């Protein structure tokens, strides 16, 4: 049975037919999209609690009832891990919440994470029938995914996917971000003995050290990791593959294949004067100090500059997380300085909207050219230049062009630079025969994610540069399938 025959067979199951017929399609499409309840903006900037509060059962069922259970569902093609979206949504409509969660976990090892941080508006929801044909707000697929995963967790009735009997073949996963976790989950299901080696003392990659608590609580990530442990995945922390131990040493220990998901943890800077002043730091450092090393929590002595006037340079998700974190750390003024206009800003619309509600200022069409410091070397000002937009560049976005003579000074006692990341160079250094691109990304065969060293597969940000959680997971899954074919002789 091919994928589309499988979907049709699933859709024809009596319970789904009955549910479909219980409400006319015209009535379904008349229903308004259910709004995600949020913590009030004035309150939430004083705490680290989640902004989005989650749908309750009635809200979830109401939203699920908008889904038309299309005969040829286009939403699935928008999901990099091919979640069977109509099926899990119809389980919710039928109040079979635990089955909805189980359905999600068949193809997605981290549904509670994806329900919170995936850019659904560019993926599954962009391909929803409501968006494509009716020009109406799409079914809230992400909010429903989050609901099902949260329901399962809160019920205490957490299911782990079935795991095949051990095939006694050891596979090493390097890096415990979403790419590594997805690969580990799929390999464990197929009976491999999987060990994840993580450089940091915590598992989760950017999910833990980058994305703040108010968007993705660490406790939620921990539950998803615990699921993998239940499936037999072993985690080794504070272990830098290529430094703590060579790949050859791991081969000698019996590891037959590797998945490298070491991420893009190297922050970019703009190479402008003053970047070494005290109080100018990368988003990576700023967020890691707060999210991973507890700088905002009582009982931790990790230092972090609080900042009264904070300038965050950039317009991506990382910039939004940094500027909203600065607000929660007590900044009186927290400003996004972005060289293009609001239309080109790459951050998710929801994050921009939340930032605006929280009083974040947006200084678009402005770019820093220098950071100035006091006599002690502490940053005091940013010299900013105004920009205008020219023709589109290679990214398809209109190119920012400096406006001559437009420079001015802006006060800032903390500058957080968030202008992109590059792949971590360590693995390439440890394995000189590995082919890498000019931008430091590992070269892979996109069909199976195999690198130029046959027993090493790779995916996620180390291959793509800074991308998204779900793309990293999709790579991890594809690599797991590639590793299985490689180890079983069907490469
Ligand atoms: C602040 C921030 C906010 C973001 N927000 C979103 C969002 O809202 N939605 C979204 O979809 N995406 C978002 N992203 C992007 C997303 O988080 C990444 O694309 C994704 O995490 C990449 O996954 P990965 O597994 O490839 O790498 P990572 O998550 O970076 O994990 C790599 C792991 O490998 C470890 N490692 C590195 N080298 C070694 C080594 N030699 N040995 C052992 N371990 C090693 C690292 O310590 C790290 O834990 C955000 C990114 C940031 C920084």
Shape: globular
- Spatial order of strands in the largest sheet: 3-2-1-4-16
Give the N-terminus to C-terminus distance in angstroms.
23 Å
CATH architecture of the largest domain: 3-Layer(bba) Sandwich
Assign the structural class, choosing from mainly alpha, mainly beta, alpha/beta, alpha+beta, or little secondary structure. Answer: alpha/beta
Output the CATH class name of the largest domain: Alpha Beta
Total number of β-strand segments? 16
Mean pLDDT: 95
Using only C-alpha atoms, the radius of gyration works out to 23 Å
What's the tally of helices? Answer: 20
Q: Can you walk through the features of this model?
A:
Helix content is 36%, strand content 16%. By secondary structure, it is α/β, with parallel strands linked by helices. It has three domains: 153 residues, Fumarate Reductase Iron-sulfur Protein, Chain B, domain 2 (Orthogonal Bundle); 162 residues, FAD/NAD(P)-binding domain (3-Layer(bba) Sandwich); 150 residues, FAD/NAD(P)-binding domain (3-Layer(bba) Sandwich). A hairpin with a 5-residue loop joins β10 and β11. The longest helix is centred in the last third of the chain and has 19 residues. The site of flavin-adenine dinucleotide (FAD) has 41 residues, from α11, α16, α18, α19 and α20.
């Amino acid at each position: 049975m091919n994928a589309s025959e499988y979907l049709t067979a699933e859709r024809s199951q009596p319970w789904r037919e009955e549910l479909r017929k219980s409400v006319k399609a015209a009535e379904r499409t008349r229903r308004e999209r259910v709004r995600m309840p949020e913590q009030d903006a004035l309150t939430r900037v004083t705490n680290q609690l989640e902004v989005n509060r989650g749908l309750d059962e009635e809200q979830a069922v109401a939203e699920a009832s908008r889904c038309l259970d299309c005969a040829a569902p286009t939403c699935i093609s928008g999901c990099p891990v091919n979640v069977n979206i109509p099926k899990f949504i119809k389980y919710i409509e039928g109040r079979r919440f635990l089955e909805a969660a189980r359905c999600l976990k068949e193809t997605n090892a981290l549904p509670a994470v994806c329900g919170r941080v995936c850019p659904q508006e560019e993926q599954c929801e962009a391909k929803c029938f409501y968006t494509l044909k009716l020009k109406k707000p799409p079914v809230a697929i992400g909010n429903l995914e989050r609901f099902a995963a949260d329901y399962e967790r809160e019920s205490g009735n957490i299911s782990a996917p079935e795991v095949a009997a051990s095939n006694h073949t050891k596979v090493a996963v390097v890096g415990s971000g979403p790419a590594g976790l997805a690969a580990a989950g799929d390999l464990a299901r197929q009976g491999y003995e999987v060990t994840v080696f993580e450089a940091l003392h915590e598992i989760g990659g950017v999910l833990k050290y980058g994305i703040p608590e108010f968007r993705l609580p660490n406790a939620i990530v921990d539950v998803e990791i615990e699921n993998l442990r239940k499936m037999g995945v072993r985690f080794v922390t504070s272990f830098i593959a290529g430094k703590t131990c060579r790949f050859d040493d791991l081969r000698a220990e019996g590891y037959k294949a590797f998945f490298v998901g070491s991420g893009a943890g190297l922050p970019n800077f703009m190479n402008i004067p003053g970047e070494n002043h005290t109080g100018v730091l990368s988003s990576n450092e700023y967020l890691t100090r707060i999210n991973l090393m507890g700088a905002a929590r009582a009982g931790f002595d990790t230092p972090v500059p609080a900042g009264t006037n904070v300038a965050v340079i950039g317009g991506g998700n990382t910039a939004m997380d940094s500027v909203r974190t600065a607000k929660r750390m007590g900044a009186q003024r927290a400003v996004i300085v972005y060289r293009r206009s609001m239309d080109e800003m790459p951050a998710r619309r929801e994050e921009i909207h939340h930032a605006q509600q929280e009083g974040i200022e947006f200084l678009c069409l402005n770019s820093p050219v220098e950071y100035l410091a006091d006599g002690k070397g502490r940053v005091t000002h940013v010299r900013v230049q105004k920009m205008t937009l020219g023709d589109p560049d290679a990214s398809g976005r209109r190119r920012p062009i400096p406006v001559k003579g437009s420079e001015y000074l802006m006060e800032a006692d903390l500058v957080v630079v968030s202008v992109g990341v590059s792949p971590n160079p360590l693995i390439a250094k440890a394995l000189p025969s590995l082919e890498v691109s000019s931008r430091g990304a590992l070269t892979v065969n996109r069909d199976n994610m195999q690198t130029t060293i046959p027993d090493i597969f790779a995916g996620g940000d180390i291959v793509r540069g800074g991308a998204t959680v779900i793309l990293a997971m999709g790579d991890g899954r594809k690599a797991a399938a590639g590793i299985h074919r490689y180890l079983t002789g069907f490469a």
